[in-house]
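Lecture notes, part 5. Sequence design as translation. It can be helpful to think of inverse folding as translation between two languages: the language of shapes and the language of residues. The source text, in structure tokens, appears below.
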């Protein structure tokens, strides 16, 4: 399956493009990427961005679902990534979101994550969880606005611990 294109009031959610790669490469260089392993510098940033964009794009072929790359509909400007992230080391799909610096505090994460969650429910996927760094208050606020509920913690193989937020699916959402 290829990534479908969804539309919200202000955003277009669709497949990755080179413009999304370029924007994501800038994001991984910024301190704003600290909750997903950044920042990276120089060639490392280009490599990190490339592997992230291509692995997220590849999930559509391997799993039939994945992440959507976000653009402002009115300008076409890339603003982030949202959707289902399901690498082999996670037991179930995660509803995950990244909004680039300069586009936060506009409600884009909630708007896009709601669309991705509802798309997933329509496909019969779920339940979904979000794994959020305990220091990432902004992402926890997004989870609350999506009516997700805390459900304990998840320990990664690295030993890093994330808070689990469980999402309501379907009509209850």
């Amino acid at each position: 399956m290829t990534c479908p294109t969804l539309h919200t009031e202000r955003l277009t959610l669709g497949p990755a493009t080179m413009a999304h790669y370029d924007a994501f490469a800038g994001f991984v260089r910024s301190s704003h990427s600290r909750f997903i392993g950044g920042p990276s510098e120089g060639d490392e940033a280009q490599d990190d961005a490339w592997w992230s964009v291509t692995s997220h794009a590849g999930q559509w072929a391997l799993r039939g679902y994945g992440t959507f790359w976000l653009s402002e509909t009115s300008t076409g400007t890339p603003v982030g990534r949202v959707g289902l992230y399901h690498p082999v080391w996670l037991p179930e799909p995660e509803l995950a979101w990244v909004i680039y610096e300069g586009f936060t505090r506009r409600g884009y994460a909630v708007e896009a994550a709601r669309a991705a969650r509802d798309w997933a429910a329509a496909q019969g996927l779920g339940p979904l969880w979000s794994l959020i760094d305990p220091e990432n208050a902004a992402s926890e606020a997004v989870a609350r606005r999506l009516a997700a509920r805390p459900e304990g913690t998840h320990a990664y193989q690295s030993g890093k611990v994330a808070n689990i937020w469980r999402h309501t699916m379907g009509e209850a959402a």
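The translated text above is only one of many valid answers, since several sequences can fold into similar shapes. The mean pLDDT is 92.
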